[in-house]
């Protein structure tokens, strides 16, 4: 953890380092992934089964999970967890339904009809990691926007290391409306979704988090299918005045730190005393936190506490950092929120811990990381819709605007463009 | 050109080949591009100037084009071309203004405030190719959506081979509201926009077409900045009955063929006689077309004419091909249009040649190619906006929904997530 004060002489330099710090380990797995993709493209199911046997120590007869097996396993999900998933799904769905956009269509003053229709993607794949990182909440966050957009075929892949299946993930899949499940993972799952195999029809877009192999496989199949953004380590930036309970803020900072040793937690406050109280609370919580190994590594290596003389100073710093999550733990959070240009999602006031948004606030928890909030947004219904524009001239309308198109086509040296218009003019 | 009939025994196999045909030349320039990017990242302006001297044979003292030089050059744009550009800009702007989305914000039944605000990107770069492919229409199509979204800084790069500048491009830049212009191109321009140099501040997103080096440079800087999609060779699919003038349809097919030897023109018709008339008309036009070298290569190697027994059969074929441009040259185009799920943009009726949309119909001409219309859309105002979501619980609302979040956090094995919520509950 490093402590910075805006009044320090070297603040600018240290803050610049903090902004440009790339926390992601870059292991080059592109060669291995390229081989797996090529193999699945050629050998289909046989290749997928080979890799599943080799990497997951699992040899299913069929890659497809039957409805009865899904139902049997999902029934093992504890009742309180199932109820919580249902509440989460209902709240996430309600928020995403409000995103459904309106088509555009009108006839302009010269008689040209034009417009834009939103059309759902036909089929998408959702990658769900296996093991500990197999988060049912992520499944809801990825599948529900697709469902609400109107995607008819929602295919999920989830590896089953040693044949083990997480009942909570299957319960979430049922609640979210997943239509097919395959018990595969890794680059081979991405290949199967992108190219198709004998038993898995290809999809048009693949979303969902995964390890380095999955991320690289998504990069390589991009173009053949659409993909969501590649998620980096989690980030939280908390802006807090001294009126907060230091314990609450410490828990918030650790809630992201426990995700990944490369996660980053930053506190900006206008009180040095409060900053020291939060730091002490973090150290205290870390002594007993079951995830302390991960959380302490993140805290030690990547956390920062920045002391400003006025919280208004946090805004330009925040817009440069463009963090995934921002908490504004102040009395009038909207005053600061209105000035934020670069962030994934905002958590306003003293009673909105970021984790509430991870599960069931309503907005999506798949958010831009690594400063990509400068140009990117969280996952949404829009990511599962396409826009098809249209144009319709009648004879008179074409006469009115056609000559100008001919002029521009000629200026660009494209005579067949010009000809296709002029042949229709008198 | 190949002729297919749906009644042919081998139709399915041949159509499948047509769908999977990848027309793009894949020269691997990634190594060269990686070097250029790294060099510009380290040496800044000096590196950009070196590459500009080497590749463009141009040695400007300043990379920045002065307002007076822009004004002087733009004044050389012919009056009729300038008037056509202004009509185009006005029509494109009118259509894109209708895309500006509404923010979402509400308080739900348990008292949680939540919403989504659309925020313009702060700064974008627009790459404009030099030489013959330097299309002023593309500049309008890339810059106007950014301007309308509210992007404050719109930076254009355009190489000046031998110091030559296209007055029409500069006139278009003025009309579109470009705020800075630099006389550079190639991978070095993409590097300068992504990383910044002494004289060029970095941007957050880069859009616009370019050659293989530019496309690869955009791929490599993706993540540091956002990029638009990588455009492949142009495509047109014309669905036409026998009531059309074969000459008109021939011109339409050639309007895309003249772009690139790898471009693809496809006609689907229900009349073999009409098909033969169109083919004959294409051959006739090609004898005198100034761009015949390119257009004939595209026509010979990539065009297809598909004869169906009923035009309704064109829809499933079309949705599989997912073409960039679709013309529906029939009396009631809306009947077919309503069934189209995968296409970039539609041109409806007998009087809407695709080229009218290239210049001034209103919808964007930057469209998905290579079947990416299955999952991607044309350029729009949305591409220059971000969504920032927010969530605000008061104490009572958190009491209502908090316990379920704790349950899910515990089920996912994330105790600090659970703690950040439970510490705020009674």
TrEMBL record, chains A, B:
GO cellular component: cytosol
Top-level taxon in the UniProt lineage: Bacteria
InterPro entries assigned: Ald_DH/histidinol_DH, Histidinol_DH_CS, Histidinol_DH_monofunct, Hstdl_DH
Residues annotated for substrate binding in this entry: 234, 256, 259, 325, 358, 412, 417
Annotated Pfam families: Histidinol_dh (PF00815)
One term of GO molecular function: histidinol dehydrogenase activity
EC numbers on record: 1.1.1.23
CC cofactor note: Binds 1 zinc ion per subunit.
CDD domains documented for this protein: Histidinol_dh (cd06572)
Catalytic activity: L-histidinol + 2 NAD(+) + H2O = L-histidine + 2 NADH + 3 H(+)
The protein's required cofactors: Zn(2+)
Active site: 324 (proton acceptor), 325 (proton acceptor)
GO biological process: L-histidine biosynthetic process
Pathway the protein contributes to: Amino-acid biosynthesis; L-histidine biosynthesis; L-histidine from 5-phospho-alpha-D-ribose 1-diphosphate: step 9/9
Sites where the protein binds NAD(+): 127, 188, 211
List of residues binding Zn(2+): 256, 259, 358, 417
Keywords: Amino-acid biosynthesis, Histidine biosynthesis, Metal-binding, NAD, Oxidoreductase, Zinc
EC top class, as a word: oxidoreductase
NCBIfam families listed in its UniProt record: hisD
Function: Catalyzes the sequential NAD-dependent oxidations of L-histidinol to L-histidinaldehyde and then to L-histidine.
Family under the similarity heading: Belongs to the histidinol dehydrogenase family.
Entry protein name: Histidinol dehydrogenase
Taxonomy of the source species: Bacteria, Bacillati, Cyanobacteriota, Cyanophyceae, Nostocales
Gene: hisD
């Amino acid at each position: 953890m490093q402590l910075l004060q805006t009044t320090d002489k070297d603040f600018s330099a240290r803050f610049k380092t903090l902004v440009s710090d790339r926390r992601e380990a870059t292991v080059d797995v592109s060669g291995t992934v390229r081989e797996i993709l090529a193999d699945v493209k050629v050998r289909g199911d046989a290749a997928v089964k080979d890799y599943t046997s080799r990497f997951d120590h699992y040899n299913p007869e069929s890659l497809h999970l039957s409805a009865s097996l899904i139902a049997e396993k999902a029934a093992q999900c504890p009742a309180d967890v199932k109820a919580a998933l249902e509440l989460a799904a209902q709240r996430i769905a309600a928020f995403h339904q409000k995103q459904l956009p309106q088509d555009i269509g009108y006839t302009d003053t010269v008689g040209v009809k034009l417009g834009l229709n939103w059309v759902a993607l036909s089929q998408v794949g959702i990658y769900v990691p296996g093991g500990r990182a197999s988060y049912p909440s992520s499944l809801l966050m990825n599948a529900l926007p697709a469902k609400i957009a109107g995607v008819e075929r929602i295919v999920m892949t989830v590896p089953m290391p040693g044949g083990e299946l997480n009942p909570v993930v299957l319960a979430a899949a049922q609640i979210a409306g997943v239509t097919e499940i395959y018990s595969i993972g890794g680059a081979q799952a991405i290949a199967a979704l992108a190219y198709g195999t004998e038993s898995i029809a290809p999809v048009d877009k693949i979303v969902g988090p995964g390890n380095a192999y999955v991320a690289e496989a998504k990069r390589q199949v991009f173009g053949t299918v659409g993909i969501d953004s590649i998620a980096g380590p989690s980030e939280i930036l908390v802006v807090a005045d001294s009126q907060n309970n230091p314990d609450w803020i410490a828990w918030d900072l650790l809630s992201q730190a426990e995700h990944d040793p490369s996660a980053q937690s930053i506190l900006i406050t206008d009180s040095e005393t409060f900053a020291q109280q939060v730091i002490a609370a973090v150290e205290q919580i870390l002594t007993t936190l079951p995830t302390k190994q991960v959380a302490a590594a993140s805290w030690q290596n990547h956390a920062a506490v920045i002391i400003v003389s006025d919280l208004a100073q946090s805004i330009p710093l925040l817009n440069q950092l463009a963090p995934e999550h921002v908490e504004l733990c102040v009395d009038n959070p909207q005053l600061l929120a209105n000035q934020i240009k670069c962030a994934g999602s905002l958590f306003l006031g003293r009673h909105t811990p970021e984790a509430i948004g991870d599960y069931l606030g309503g907005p999506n928890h798949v958010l831009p990381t690594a400063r990509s909030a400068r140009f990117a947004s969280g996952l949404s219904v829009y990511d599962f819709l396409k826009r098809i524009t249209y144009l319709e001239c009648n004879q008179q309308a074409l006469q009115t605007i056609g000559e100008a198109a001919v002029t521009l086509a000629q200026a660009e040296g494209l005579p067949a463009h010009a000809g296709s218009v002029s042949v229709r003019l008198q």
